[in-house]
Amino acid sequence: xxxxxIKITKDEEYNIYIEKGILxxxxxxxxxxxxxxxxxxxxxxxxxxxxxxxxxxxxxxxxFSTDFIEVPDGEKYKCISxxxxxxxxxxxxxxxRSTGLIALGGGVTGDLTGFVAATYMRGLSLVHIPTTLLAxxxxxxxxxxxxxxxxxxxxxxxxxxxxxxxxxxxxxxxxSDKDIKNGIVEAVKIAVxxxxxxxxxxxxxxxxxLNRDIDIxxxxxxxxxxxxxxxVLEDPWETGLRKILNFGHSIGHALEVEAGYQDLxxxxxxxxxxxxxxxxxxxxxxxxxEFEEQIKYILAILYSSQPSRSxxxxxxxxxVRNIDYNxxxxxxxxxxxxxxxxxxxxxxxxxxxxxxxxxxxxxxxIKALEEF
Length: 372
Ligand SMILES: NC(=O)c1ccc[n+]([C@@H]2O[C@H](COP(=O)([O-])OP(=O)(O)OC[C@H]3O[C@@H](n4cnc5c(N)ncnc54)[C@H](O)[C@@H]3O)[C@@H](O)[C@H]2O)c1
Ligand SMILES: [Zn+2]
Known about the structure:
The chain has about 375 residues and is an alpha/beta fold.
């Protein structure tokens, strides 16, 4: 078992547990965290059908009183009306401050549950059981919780740390190819901003990852979590350094808004965002042609390595052709990273060499979108 301790402040510290099969054995750990043995699991119908029974039997083993609440599947349900629905359901079930909330699902479930945990009665104990690769390596780590607004992604949110994160790589066996790739995209992001060695490791293991080699996936999870934890610990409230984790996310989020939180997944949008932001860096002479090729190469493998993937990849890359570039610019003006009207981007000079730019202009963004 890999156990990573994350200490945010003197009084705020928790563990991230990474182990195959931990979903069936987390009752003992949970008993130490949720003292009154009352938990409510927030999930979606698909994840509930796959893993609800297993989690329920673990909770029964630990003598927890348990309720499940489902929210429909999809990014468009990571919104304030779903949060409202959950507040209603928690009240109906008389959830109080000693009730624990468990997020069982991908990043959408984790962000939404986290947001509700942070706000209901000014805070309930939160536990993440991330079930997508993206959620295991990225979204369940670091305490950012949020819901989307139709005009801006993740714009209503908070920082709210969980009491524990339980990562079971075995649940990835049921994940779609598309969601394996979505997770790898965030790993590429973490690697490229933080560690040239990790980036090289990804380049050499990309096919094993796509083929779901479980040991390589476990290694990927451990490496990604470690690097994300390093960044979070240096800047838990994103006042400075942590902003680097937003590489690819300025354009990526704008594309998700443009897609109405449908048709384009978060991972796909971030892949496009990293490519377009790298094009901006290239046009400014910040990075080399070689670096642009490196990023393109690894993302192209993701989106064209198997015959069944070629259709997906076409639609992902094509997406940028049929959108309104002026609207993308307008959405960028609402980005959370902006300060006093200045649009901020995270750009890369090379793997591990990040810079923050706050004089991005409309012409260069549109040029990069057109060239793409
Ligand atoms: N809070 C953060 O720091 C942070 C970081 C990165 C991303 N995010 C957020 O994460 C979200 C994206 O998360 P995601 O990619 O996990 O999407 P998601 O939660 O929509 O999950 C993707 C799909 O996988 C299904 N699924 C989940 N687990 C499964 C399993 N084990 N087997 C089969 N299917 C399974 C889900 O039902 C869904 O259809 C975005 O909203 C993004 O903004 C947040
Ligand atoms: Zn992301």
